[in-house]
Design a protein that fits this description.
Length: 252
Amino acid sequence: MYLVDLRGYGKSTRPPEMDKPAADNEPIVRTETAVKDVGAAVDFILERRGVSKINLLGWSWGTSIMGWYTAQNNDKVNKLVLYAPQWIRTTPSLIQAGSKLGAYRPVSRDAAKARWLTGVPEEKKAELIPPGWFETWADATFATDPVGSKQTPAVLRAPNGVLQDGREFWGAGKALYDPAGIRVPTFLTHAEWDADLPSYMLHAYFAKLTNAPYRRYVEIGEGTHTIIMEKNRMQLFQAVQQFLDEELESNQ
């Protein structure tokens, strides 16, 4: 298993624009750039492992990155898993970053927690996330920002390229790529209370997968956009693992 930190995220290099005030530059790390980063990682893994194809998994914005990459490089992909797929938006985004986007934006722990729990019934919030999990995740994630982690209170600086693409494309009724270009077995999964990328996006995306040898989706109850760290996470893990492990004949 390999996990890729795109430029500007995690333990990867921060673009030079992040050493300057956010307002000094346009949004950085657009989806097209992220696809190139994934492509470099895939080529490295293929060579290192001595294989011709690998499975790709994407979450949230990562579904657009992995989906677009696969549509251009089907020969390098065995199976594709998209968790909370992004598609044309018909509802407001949960992230409101002002009228003009700078290169990046600061995210606070409180904002991250509030966004996580958006759409969850009030009586379900207390038991959704295992005790201490949000704090452990936030500590580890915010610590990766060499600048934001030193502020008081600490923030996580996030490149705004994904938001700019949301405004110019997904939120404007325009797709960055066509899922019909995906020609590998594809699995979509989503959680009931996901307010970031609601269920209608999954259904629309699924209908666009017209050239996948076979396709499937699973909707999980009582979960959010971050079900990967919630009480029902094993339903997600088991469904994905089953898809990756199984061997089925193409229906075409």
